[in-house]
Automatic annotation (TrEMBL):
GO terms for molecular function: phosphatidylinositol-4,5-bisphosphate binding. One of its GO terms (biological process) is exocytosis. SUPFAM superfamilies: SNARE fusion complex. GO terms for cellular component: exocyst; plasma membrane. This is Syntaxin-binding protein 6. Residues 151-210 form the V-SNARE coiled-coil homology domain.
C-alpha cells in the first residue's frame, strides 16, 4: 500500500473524511524548534493533505501528517480549515518548480515538494476544490501557473470532456429522434396514401360492376 493510501485509511477514514490530495514535502528553511520540544524522535517524512468530510455540508481541511523513522504509523500534527488558508504561493508562474508556500491565519510554511509535478497536482486540486467548496472568503493564489488555475488544467479538461461527451450524445439522440420522427411521418404518409388508393380502387371497382 502506498503512503498516500495508508494516510487516507489511517488518518481520514476513521473520522468520516476522504483525502482528496496529498504532497510529500520538506521545509525550505529549517524551523527553529526548542531542544526539549524535539523529543528525540529523529527523522520523519511530512505530508500536506487536503481532505473533505463525507457528511453534508462538506468541510475542507488541510492537515500536516508525519511519519517518524522506524514507525509505520502516520500521525496528524496540525490541521486548518480551508477558511483559515489565506494564500497559496506557487513561487514561479513561468515554470514548473517544486517550491510553494502556504499562509494561514496563524502559520506560514515554506515547502519543497518531492517533485514539481506533485506540487502542481496538489495546487491544481486545491484551487479547484476551493472554488467548489469554500465560502465567499476564498484563499488567494499567487505566482501560480495559469494551467493550474483553469484553462488547461486536467480537472477542467476532464470536466470539459465529460460535458462535451454529454452534449454530443444529446445531439446524437436528438438527431436520431428527428430522423425517427421523419421516418414515422413518411410511414404515416405512405399509409394514408395506401388507404386512399385502396378506397379509390374500391370505388372504381364498384362503378365497373354497375
Amino acid at each position: 500500500m502506498s503512503a498516500k493510501l495508508a494516510i487516507n485509511k489511517e488518518v481520514f477514514v476513521p473520522h468520516d473524511e476522504k483525502m482528496l490530495a496529498a504532497v510529500q514535502v520538506k521545509r525550505r528553511t529549517k524551523k527553529k524548534i526548542p531542544f526539549l520540544a524535539t523529543g528525540g524522535q529523529g527523522d520523519y517524512m511530512t505530508f500536506i493533505c487536503l481532505s473533505v468530510t463525507n457528511k453534508k455540508p462538506s468541510h475542507l481541511s488541510i492537515t500536516k501528517v508525519k511519519q517518524f523513522q522506524g514507525s509505520s504509523a502516520f500521525v496528524k500534527r496540525s490541521q486548518w480549515t480551508i477558511d483559515q488558508l489565506r494564500q497559496v504561493n506557487g513561487i514561479d508562474p513561468n515554470k514548473d518548480c517544486p517550491e510553494f508556500d502556504l499562509m494561514f491565519e496563524n502559520a506560514f510554511d515554506q515547502w519543497v515538494a518531492g517533485s514539481a509535478g506533485e506540487k502542481c497536482t496538489f495546487i491544481q486540486i486545491l484551487h479547484h476544490t476551493c472554488q467548489r467548496y469554500s465560502s465567499a472568503r476564498k484563499p488567494e493564489f499567487v505566482n501560480c501557473q495559469s494551467k493550474l488555475l483553469g484553462g488547461n488544467s486536467i480537472l477542467h479538461s476532464a470536466a470539459d470532456s465529460v460535458t462535451s461527451a454529454v452534449q454530443k450524445a444529446s445531439q446524437a439522440l436528438n438527431e436520431r429522434g428527428e430522423r425517427l420522427g421523419r421516418a414515422e411521418e413518411k410511414t404515416a404518409d405512405m399509409m394514408n396514401s395506401a388507404e386512399q388508393f385502396a378506397v379509390t380502387a374500391h370505388k372504381l371497382a364498384m362503378k365497373h360492376k354497375c
